[in-house]
Amino acid sequence: MTQSFTCSACGAPNYAEADSIRMACAYCGANLTIPEHLRTKSIPNVRETSSKTGPAISPEIDAPDLFRKAQPIAVKAWNLYAYWTWVRWLLPACLTLIIVSLIICAALGALPLMYNLFR
Hints:
Layout: E1 4-6, E2 13-15, E3 22-24, E4 31-33, H1 59-117
Antiparallel strand pairs: 1-2, 3-4
């Protein structure tokens, strides 16, 4: 059981922190020196390591398998790039054709009007 000691500034009870000589008062924040008889060592936190980890990956041995696994991703990325370059060319070409055909259509539609105007 931990014992408390009083703060010299406000008189509030404080509990000593492990592995420290000085600490701040929990109530007023004053710097306190922990009495010698209340200083304690912290209990080390020990964790058991799991022995169920797999073997380490060796690039020399596992490279063909890793490339085989990555190949479908690379093929999909290449196909997506090819589609993108095709669409990047096709979209402006289609828009240009549509605009040119609208202009030709308007000109041909206005041709009879122009013919009647100058007659």
